[in-house]
Design a protein that fits this description.
This protein is of the alpha+beta class. Helix content is 24%, strand content 28%. The protein has helices spanning 24-32, 61-67, 108-114, 117-135, 212-224, 273-281, 295-304; strands spanning 37-42, 45-48, 59-60, 72-78, 81-88, 104-105, 147-149, 154-156, 163-164, 169-178, 185-190, 202-205, 228-239, 244-253, 267-272. Helix 3 packs antiparallel against helix 4 (117-135).
């Protein structure tokens, strides 16, 4: 039985074949399989079918490979069939040329809000891998141009044989709760660059030598001046912008005296459960909820539904 996928970009249905993709001969066989399919990205945007219910547009691998012979990766097996991804480069939309009539490219956040969960997960995985390959083309040990291996899941330096693997940057994202008043309240924060009214859970990257709980406490103290007294894990989310793992938490703080640091946050707001319900429903007069694809919205909904520290 598959694990439940609570968040967008989770629930990838593919068998990643991690024990077989190290074999170049096996990978070549998969690429030559007439049943092999590929999703297509252009500038990080997945190709979606133009008509009907939103879903990824799949191309035969041979067709997709002709578009970008050196920009492919192996995603895994889907019901026994090989699945690949191809990234087309260039400033001209390929649907104006070789992909005319086959679909429409959508920005990844927009696509994720439209696609079924498994489709969004596969597209997000492909984007993260292509972004990693673009940013890590040279060996970090000796500076030599590295080479693709394992179907795009590894790069190997031909000079010093150092192996490089896709990095994932862990981020704690937490809904802080204060229980000392007349009724429990949760804390949302706002960054100045966000759309008017948008607020979300507080978040920050883990640092070396730091536990998840310690990162949660540090970020809450740095951004809002509060002390965390308890932490509970809720769920996680792959976030392909470019390649983060959002670790969703509910935490309790010992005070309601929140003070935004004016660097990360320009404002904060406390919400009762009833007020949070209004935010999620779009009825709050001043605060807009996090986007539906964001784990911050999952955390807010979870607290409204009774999940607590």
């Amino acid at each position: 039985m598959p694990l439940p996928a609570l968040n967008t970009f989770a629930g990838n249905p593919l068998d990643r074949a991690g024990d077989r993709r190290n074999d170049p001969d096996w990978l070549a066989e998969q690429g030559a399989d007439p049943e092999a399919l590929a999703l297509v990205l252009w500038e990080g945007r997945p190709l979606l079918e133009a008509e009907g219910e939103p879903r990824l547009a799949w191309l035969p691998m041979m067709h997709a490979r002709a578009l970008a012979p050196d920009r492919e990766l192996f995603l895994g097996l889907w019901k026994g069939a090989p699945v690949f991804a191809v990234e087309v480069e260039g400033s001209v939309d390929p649907t104006a040329g070789p992909l005319r009539g086959l679909g429409v490219f959508h920005e990844m956040r927009e696509a994720a809000a439209l696609l079924p969960g498994p489709d969004a997960a596969m597209a997000g995985t492909a984007k993260s891998l292509f972004d990693w390959r673009r940013r890590h083309g040279f060996c970090a040990a000796c500076g030599t141009l590295s080479e693709d291996a394992c179907g795009g899941w590894k790069r190997v330096c031909p000079a010093c044989a150092t192996e490089h693997f896709p990095r994932v940057d862990p981020v704690t994202i937490m809904l802080a709760i204060y229980k000392g008043g007349a009724e429990p309240r949760c804390l949302l924060g706002r960054q100045a660059s966000w759309p008017e009214g948008r607020m979300s859970a507080l978040a920050g990257f883990l640092e070396p030598g730091e536990t998840i709980e310690e990162a949660c406490a540090r970020e809450i103290e740095e951004e809002a001046g509060l002390t965390v007294t308890a932490v509970r894990y809720h769920s996680s989310q792959p976030w392909p912008f470019p390649s983060q793992l959002m670790i969703g938490l509910i935490c309790e703080v010992d005070s309601e005296d929140a003070a935004p640091d004016q660097t990360e946050l320009e404002a904060v707001a406390w919400l009762t459960r009833d007020e949070a319900v209004d935010v999620l429903a779009g009825r709050h007069p001043a605060i807009k909820a996090p986007p539906r694809i964001a784990i911050a919205r999952t955390l807010l909904q979870a607290w409204v539904d009774g999940f607590d520290v």
